[in-house]
Amino acid sequence: MDVNYNVTYGNENELKYTGNINSENETGNESEKHEEESLKKDQAKLSEIRELGNTNMTGPDQSIQILPIIGQVEGHVVLPPQTKSTKYEHLIPQLISMEQNDKVKGVLIVLNTVGGDVEAGLAIAEMIYSLSKPTVSIVIGGGHSIGVPLATSADYSFITPSATMIVHPVRMNGFVIGVAQTFHYFKKMQERINSFIVRTSKIDKDELERMMLKSDELLNDMGTMLIGEQAVECGLIDKVGGIKEALAKLNELIKEKEEEK
To answer: Is 168 a catalytic residue?
Structure first.
């Protein structure tokens, strides 16, 4: 912006100027500033998607939020950089933000995980279960280990026909002290996981424990692998379906919630 002025002196301590203000460049500067801000916003969104795997559903109302849980659930120990992981310290603030945001009407949880940290996974599952917004989960590749309670934590769950879920007892890596206290610790942790799964799905407790202790299905391990329809038959998952069915169910739950209000 250019300012041309002439200075004149009138009475004492009075300064006057006359002239014109050239605003020829003002519009151009504002346009450049707007483009720069828009570019920064786009870069921030791309960074958020890349780092957190978080984005909104397309649409001005942003009513449906996507929560992807992929790779290994990372807990208190940082995983190697080449390991695909979902960090619990990223998901916790996202879930709180979804709960506080009135624009968010529902949450779609997309799972393709091999499991991971039990404490972190169970904490995330409890947070999803406690959301006041309608939630739908869908297992698209795998929902193994701690991925099982993450899948059942939603109001309604789906699994694609070819997706798998592995139910097995708690494992521990690293140094383990072979004493009675260690056994009791494992037992209590397993009870926490089993209790949550039974509370958030239709599976029977005895059936769940039987599948976990099965020794003739997994190589060098105990547990059971369930593929698609098998996860529905035992009561872990509600229905076989894909993204289309999951979104349709979520929209249905959102509509029912609004009608209740």
So the answer is: yes
